[in-house]
Amino acid sequence: MSSASASPSASSPSPASAWLAHHRRAAGSSLMRCLRRPWATLLTVCVMALALALPMGLSVTLDNLKHFAGSVQQSRQISLFLHPDFSVEQARALQAELQQRADVEHIELRTPEQGLAELRERAGMGAAIDALDDNPLPSVLLLTPAAEADDQALGTALEALPQADLVQHDAQWRQRLDGWLALGTRMVNLLSLLLGIGAALVVGNTVRLDILARREEIGVLQLLGASNGFIRRPFLYLGAWYGLGAGAIALGLWAACVAAIRPPLVALTQSYASPFVFKTLDALHSGFVLLGTTVIGVIGAWLVASHVLRQNRLLEG
């Protein structure tokens, strides 16, 4: 008698297992609904993918432009051209003297021989250089300011040196470039927000049509006392599948665009003897993209499903 009474309780599922089982059924049924109407699903997913691929591509391109502009230390570098009559030994002495300054982090000396070799290698002017009787290039000191240093004040101090022939420090140009990059970042963020909202609305409209097609089934569940969360769950998974598929297609579109522009870009950078390499999304960032598009799909489905179900209850009441 005791064993008979214990068996039903042992076989009855716990609330947690029943909750997980319903999530599995909701995810599976929503995926099957997507697969049963492939063309409609593909159309919705492709519209979302195009809306998501544009800001993603612009963001990656902007990051590459920042990388192409140079690192922070390189962009702050100051070039001090010495008078041509100063020897390399005098340039080394000045290098050691300037290295003692608190606002200077590092100094690199480029001798006239090194400058001539670099000019011969990069500019392809070997024949013209060989025709020269002597080396016309001066010694150059490349100074990297300290992190807390005032670049403008350091440049002014270098210009006052008697050994200085020219100080090249394009601070104003770099400030303008940073301003344009900041403006581009802000525009990409705003465009991403707008197109993300558009993608969520596409999912929401698709889910709304699916809810309306199952209105009678939903009405029966509501009469049986099912909560809005129980009824809404399959539609949330439907939005998640739409978002995940859109993210995958957006990544594929961006990979195809990168493959198309890579050959001319490589040829262009090689013509400038630049080590720049176009960086695309790695596995980690691609995973974040898929997660973000899935969240967008869930948000769009949740907003529309909650609104429609709330209206349906009000109409029934």
UniProtKB/TrEMBL annotation:
Residue ranges of domain ABC3 transporter permease C-terminal in the record: 190-312
UniProt keyword Transmembrane present: yes
Subcellular location: Cell inner membrane
Keyword Hydrolase (UniProt): no
Keywords associated with the record: Cell cycle, Cell division, Cell inner membrane, Cell membrane, Membrane, Transmembrane, Transmembrane helix
PANTHER family reported in the protein's UniProt record: CELL DIVISION PROTEIN FTSX
Subunit architecture: Forms a membrane-associated complex with FtsE.
GO cellular component terms, semicolon-separated: cell division site; plasma membrane
UniProt family annotation: Belongs to the ABC-4 integral membrane protein family. FtsX subfamily.
Domain FtsX extracellular as annotated: residue spans: 77-165
Purpose: Part of the ABC transporter FtsEX involved in cellular division.
Residues annotated as transmembrane: 39-58, 187-207, 235-263, 283-305
GO biological process: cell division
InterPro entries from the UniProt entry: ABC3_permease_C, FtsX, FtsX_ECD, FtsX_proteobact-type
Protein name: Cell division protein FtsX
Top-level taxon of the source organism: Bacteria
Membrane topology category: Multi-pass membrane protein
